[in-house]
């Protein structure tokens, strides 16, 4: 699909993206926009090489693609200087290879913070109240009347939410769980989440002034403290060498038997095979997963576990956010083509 065929700068998007604002932005600035219409979901390096072709000024790519030496060198040869991931995470991008070939890299933070945090909150609730299991039970026609023990789950109020990685998304999630469900907070991050701490303190004072039990916060000295103390744990780190399999057999063993674990960050942060074994051995332990170690696949056995809520990497999938991500990705590429610093450079 081609927009503004006579445009001076050739910008390729490896996927169709929501909305038209991003296309309008580019075409209004003399860009010819080419959108790949290939039907298969995940493009190979060869597919993308063909898209880059002999001349290409910039590319908007996706987190399912492997942006390394081969693609960045090809982009340079084609005269390209700009690449943007349509994602905040960029573990699929070898930024040093991009730097080596003089290609600026952008990502799309900010616009997906609340949407992603809302999905993590939804997974927390779905796991706590066994929503998916109960839904399947209804659809199977198994409901034959109210029972005192039917789908009994966990009350969140007064329990402790544990956040591992209290950056933009982790902090937004924490606020939702604290304000929405009056949970106490324990978090682990290399950096102090000062604004989050101030929020919990102020909210705690507000509750107290209204005669309610105040909420509390604690910054954990180690991740183990979060694993040991929290009732609901949500993972929000970036994926790199230090966070690969952060949650493994040993860390799962530390968690409470009835804990809930949520992951809307990146799949390889959890050792998924170890998680499957843990879910099998601990039916009261529950997970809410948006991401998987080897997407689009799941480790054998995961789909059969009733104590797992699983959705297909949709944390940022609200219309507003996806249009915003597309717009930021276009701005990143356009900025660089026009000689400005890239809008959002993960190196900065
Ligand atoms: C991201 O942006 O990194 C998400 O995984 C997709 O929105």
UniProtKB/TrEMBL annotation:
Enzyme class: oxidoreductase
Protein's cellular compartments: Peroxisome
GO terms (BP aspect): oxidative photosynthetic carbon pathway
Pathway: Photosynthesis; photorespiration; 3-phospho-D-glycerate from glycine: step 3/4
Catalytic activities: (R)-glycerate + NAD(+) = 3-hydroxypyruvate + NADH + H(+)
D-isomer specific 2-hydroxyacid dehydrogenase catalytic domain segment(s): 23-340
Record EC number: 1.1.1.29
Domain (D-isomer specific 2-hydroxyacid dehydrogenase NAD-binding) ranges: 122-315
Matches recorded under Gene3D superfamilies: NAD(P)-binding Rossmann-like Domain (3.40.50.720)
Entry keywords, A to Z: Glycolate pathway, NAD, Oxidoreductase, Peroxisome
Entry GO terms, CC: cytosol; peroxisome
Gene Ontology MF terms in the entry: glyoxylate reductase (NADPH) activity; hydroxypyruvate reductase (NADH) activity; NAD binding
Homology family: Belongs to the D-isomer specific 2-hydroxyacid dehydrogenase family.
Record protein name field: glycerate dehydrogenase
Organism of provenance: Dioscorea zingiberensis
